[in-house]
Design goal:
By secondary structure, the protein is of the alpha+beta class. The chain folds into two domains: 5-85 and 98-204, no CATH class; 216-313 and 328-368, no CATH class. It contains 16 helices and ten strands. The chain has helices spanning 10-17, 34-45, 59-63, 104-127, 147-154, 197-203, 208-217, 220-224, 242-247, 255-261, 264-267, 275-278, 305-310, 336-340, 344-350, 360-368, and strands at 5-8, 23-27, 75-82, 94-95, 136-139, 158-159, 165-166, 174-181, 189-195, 269-271. Strands 2-3-8-5 form a four-stranded antiparallel β-sheet, sandwiched between helices. A two-stranded antiparallel ribbon has the order 1-9. The protein has a two-stranded parallel sheet with strand order 4-10. Helix 1 packs antiparallel against helix 4.
């Protein structure tokens, strides 16, 4: 068994969870293996990243997180922050569930800054270590870090058919964040409980292996994807993904993207997509009531064996969503006409500190022109 990870000291775990996280794992971030690098560069070579050229930048950093710090990175925390899932709003244009609240980048970074401060103080008190010698870097979907791979390696969860990381106790609807530090792993883990990442995985949720095997036999996310963007081994062809097409793609869609956006799901999407999350049996118990009164959705799961593996007394209250991630009430009254006539000032005011600002006003209006309803 490897000594690259282990069970966190309870004091360390408590500091991270106090920031609003629902789970955390840790690993020593050694450079990636050749096959792990090849998986990513192969995906790029097939141009599945669409026009997200930034994903091909800083490849050395993506291969070795140590390069992200002034000194060598010795520990990497992989952290899960759940967000609520909501059914689609009837036939109306939809905003992905994760984007209905405040921008997760801002929320999580603010909370983890305080966690890093508390970790530094704990290290100072416990090991007589000067807090000024501790270097921490917070990464939230904005640094060249392969977040899902490190979550997998650290034992936070396992990879689903749609490429997402899932946990038997959290489902797969959660944001990933990392804290990378130059403090050695041994300071943060219980020295009497050194484990490999495989050991941690089997303990995550009380039945991680069982539901993960069931996931590999399930095709719900693959079948439900409007653009058939989910390929083998959890690879996503962004060019066929509604999330990419409505958020990251700039300007007019190419013919293949236009075809996806003319599907029923595409024509009722304003920003993002969480269809593969909503149909996943692991998330069936976490779909909240509609955030609008006229919404509705059939229960996507008819496979109760997943629930058996997830219902574990140790984890029954583990998935807690921070209030910042629940829908903003002002979004309920948005209409097609209000978006059509929206000025840049109105856009900036309404979507201030919101993930929706990512697409820009022009992108939002482009997406609106392809929908077929009157209100959000």
């Amino acid at each position: 068994m490897g000594r690259n990870t282990g069970r966190l000291r309870q004091e360390v775990r408590d500091i991270i969870l106090a920031a609003g996280a629902s789970d955390v794992s840790i690993i020593s971030p050694a450079p990636l293996k050749a096959e792990e690098i090849a998986d990513y560069t192969g995906w790029l070579s097939r141009e599945m990243n669409g026009e997200m050229m930034y994903l091909s930048n800083y490849l050395p950093l993506r291969q070795s997180p140590s390069l992200l710090l002034t000194e060598e990175a010795r520990s990497l925390f992989s952290i899960a922050f759940p967000f609520p899932l909501f059914p689609p709003n009837g036939k109306n244009p939809n905003i992905a569930s994760y984007a209905l609240g405040d921008d997760y980048h801002d929320v999580i970074r603010t909370r983890l800054r305080n966690a890093c401060k508390n970790l530094s103080e704990w290290l100072s008190k416990t090991f007589d270590m000067s807090p000024y010698v501790c270097e921490f870097r917070i990464c939230i979907d904005s640094a060249p870090v392969r977040e899902r791979l490190w979550a997998l390696k650290a034992g936070l969860g396992k990879r689903c058919r749609n490429g997402m990381i899932a946990s038997g106790s959290l489902g797969s609807a959660f944001f990933l964040a990392e804290i990378i530090t130059d403090i050695p792993l041994e300071y943060f883990i219980d020295q009497y409980s050194i484990e490999s990442n495989e050991d941690v995985n089997t303990k995550n949720g009380g039945g991680e292996t069982s539901w993960a095997e069931a996931c590999l036999r399930c095709t719900k996310c693959i079948d439900a994807c409007p653009g058939k963007a989910i390929k083998d081994n959890g690879l996503i062809d962004a060019r066929l993904c509604i999330s990419y097409l409505t958020i990251e793609h700039r300007g007019a869609w190419k013919p293949e993207g236009e075809k996806v956006m003319q599907t029923p799901a595409g024509r009722t999407t304003l920003f993002g997509c969480d269809i593969c999350l909503r149909v996943c049996p692991l998330n069936s118990e976490y779909i909240s009531d509609s955030c609008h009164s006229d919404g509705g959705m059939e229960n996507p799961s008819d496979n109760d064996k997943y629930k058996t593996y997830r219902k574990n007394e140790t984890f029954k209250d583990k998935r807690e969503v921070m209030p910042e991630f629940y829908p903003r009430p002002e979004y309920k009254g948005i209409t097609r006409e209000s978006i059509r006539s929206m000025s840049k000032e109105d856009f900036s005011r309404l979507f201030r500190k919101s993930p929706v600002k990512r697409t820009g006003l022009d992108g939002l209006k482009r997406n609106l022109n392809e929908t077929d309803s009157e209100t959000l």
